[in-house]
Amino acid sequence: MAIKPPANRLWWNDPIHGVELGWIIIAFLWGLFMFFFMIAWHFIGEQNLSSETYRIRPEKYQEKVEAFAQQHQAKDQNGAPLEEKGVPVVRPPAGGDVYILARLWEFWPIIELKKGQSYRFHISSVDWQHGFSLQPTNINISVHPGYEHVINLTPTDTGTFGVICNEYCGIGHHTMTGRIRVVE
Amino acid sequence: MTTVDVGAVGKAGIAVNYRTCRFTGLRIEANAETLIKVNAVAAVVFLALGGLMGLLVALTRWPAIQLLPAEWFYLVLTGHGANVLLFWIIFFEIAVLYFASAVLLGARLATPRIAWLAFGLMIAGALMANYAVLRGDSSVMFTSYPPMMASHWFYLALIIFAVGALLAVMVFFGTLVVAKEEKTYDGSVPLVTFGAITAGIIAVFTLASGAIILIPTWLWSIGVISQIDTLMYKVVWWGMGHSSQQINVSAHVAIWYAIGAMVLGAKPLSEKVSRTAFLTYILFLQLASAHHLLAEPGMSSSWRIVNTSYMMYLAVMGSMIHGLTVPGAIEAAQRRNGFDRGIFEWLTKAPWGNPAFSGMFMSLVLFGFVGGISGVVLGTEQLNVLMHNTLYVPGHFHGTVVAGTTLAFMAMTYLVVPLIFQRDIIWPGLARLQPFLFAIGAGGISLFMMGAGTLGVARRHWDISLTDAVHAFEYPPGAYMMMALNGIFAVLASIGGILFILIVVGSILRGPRLDGTNAKLTFPLHDASREAVSKYGSHATVKLPGTIVLVGIFFAAFVLYYFVNWKYLSDLWLFR
């Protein structure tokens, strides 16, 4: 019994049952397969999270985002700056950099992208940790203060996407959202 | 002679007395018995408190009810994590460690005074943590990621608890030494003790990681250190946070074997295979803390792949081996017990009316199918981006820690009460029902949280309708349904939990005494004299068709679900 010392003192000499051996081989091969599949996805897949990261002081990052928002501020037909609830809408050039600032309790600013174009997303926080959860496409990435994470993203469909904070960040956590629009 | 004799201990002031259990023949020492009792009782108290908090969390996340206001929700969620994930589980694990060492080896507990000191520190830490949380200035969640700061009481409480737990683990190791020195057993330690040793070794690593990160964090909270690096914190904190779950896995797998042995007379198919599987936990599980950092900046892909695969999934292999050897040992035992017809008679005629067995077997199934498979998927380098920090994560770990560990611990309690407290289980009808209620509830919350997470719902979030948010966003209606179903199954699990606590407390206080000579157990243990006369095979020739079918279904589900998630992933925006 499993609660008694093994009946055979030399238990390590007992033969292994065939069923056990078969299952060990299957489990081992499946583990190897899963291991190599992660590596393979770097070659065959399109969704591999970048590890490009820079250390940056939060104030410095905020300056970068503000400069980016000013430079690429979207305008309407009359040349007036586009805003939603006081948050500027920013239209970065295709293939260019996108800066998103996570802070208590918003993702700033609103970004407008073109479908099928690649962008270099920069994400960082100026205060606590936050979670960048892009919905409904369901891409979830952690955001740290002091670390600027650079991720290449190509939107594959159009519409209005929500960015929801999914790292707990205090009492206003459930009010922390942002917005990304994708147009043709 | 290096043996410490009874007299020497007597001089120290704490006497050593043994009794022999009438039902198991185990030699039980009084100090070990008392310390198992107090740790088990403390565990159940914190389960009651943490479980109640869990119910409040689920009722708040049920959109139609949204019971608590936001600040209370975050407070209660922090308390829920600490009370059930740390205090309930670790108190019970200490009881399991003492049981697996002193009781199973028939030895005295080493240094009972230090065991009491450990218990006192753990109680002090647990109470202080609850005080810190209930004060309202430590709603930082169980993970307490900086730079968000809790009250310094919170970190100090966890440090004190960890020191206590570490001492208790040392008492466990000491007891193993005492048993070996005093030759209370012959040959190698039993498999269950071996599993407990695995848990103990992982516990040392875990608690050391906790100390390494919580001590500086505490110093930071009182102003001695100016800053804690957020990424470094996560790496080291998860050395405690995830590894502590590996203590649970080792402990509850050991319990699966123990219950199989005590209720059905199950023998391990092969000592070598089962022990090696435990060994893979020690060697590889620690790496798992890395899979909490798959969505973080700054971690290289090769680092992610090596660590999150537990070095090529060798620890997953360990769990998959137990997934065969535990039901395999039960099937072999049942066939020896005479239930040898067809593929599944051994299972259908199993003692489902015995809550120790039913709880154990459902724990095995739910841990494998729900917690295990989802854990591997969640911990895959690229797939993690689909569910990181969504409700999928709590869905997964409720599958492991609630449906797996907690259910196994509950099942074990149905043996601890008669054997250690020497009181019979009261209300046998309700006791029969309890594991089923809890298993269905726990399985339900796991699955529906995973469902909600797949639809993108954030974890630790008070309001999925995002009413007060700057920019509105609507989750799909399915997400609301998932949250409601989660609430309903949380109520079921709570009823199961409340029943468990009532039955256990009632049995300890008012259950029929079992120390008389004629007393009988309501839920009997395995009776070796009733084994079928004809031997059902030897270890090497035993046939296990039922187990082969079960693991076949498991493997098919695993492979299918794994690839379904790659399909989901390939539909995301392109990362280029």
CATH superfamily of one domain in chain B: Cytochrome c oxidase-like, subunit I domain
**Percentage of residues in helical conformation of chain A:** 10-25%
Number of strands of chain A: 12
Spatial strand arrangement across the major sheet of chain B:
1-2
As laid out across the biggest beta sheet of chain A, the strand order is 2-3-6-12-11-8-9
**Can you tell me the CATH superfamily of the largest domain in chain A?**
Cupredoxins -  blue copper proteins
Helical run tally of chain A: 2
CATH class of one domain in chain B equals: Mainly Alpha
Q: State the CATH topology of the largest domain in chain A.
A: Immunoglobulin-like
CATH architecture of one domain in chain B: Up-down Bundle
* Chain pair with largest interface: A-B, 89 and 105 residues
Low-confidence segments of chain B, given as residue ranges, are 1-11, 533-540
β-strand number of chain B: 2
Radius of gyration of chain A equals 24 Å
Name the average pLDDT of chain A: 95
Percentage of residues in helical conformation of chain B: 55-70%
Plain-language structure description:
The complex is a heterodimer of chains A (184) and B (576). In chain A, a hairpin with a 3-residue loop joins strand 8 (130-135) and strand 9 (139-143). Chain A contains 2 helices and 12 strands, in the order αβαβββββββββββ. Helices cover 22% and strands 35% of the residues of chain A. Chain A has 184 residues and is of the alpha+beta class. By secondary structure, chain B is mainly alpha-helical. Chain B contains 18 helices and 2 strands. Chain B is globular. Chain B starts with 5 loop residues before the first helix and ends in a 6-residue tail after the last helix.
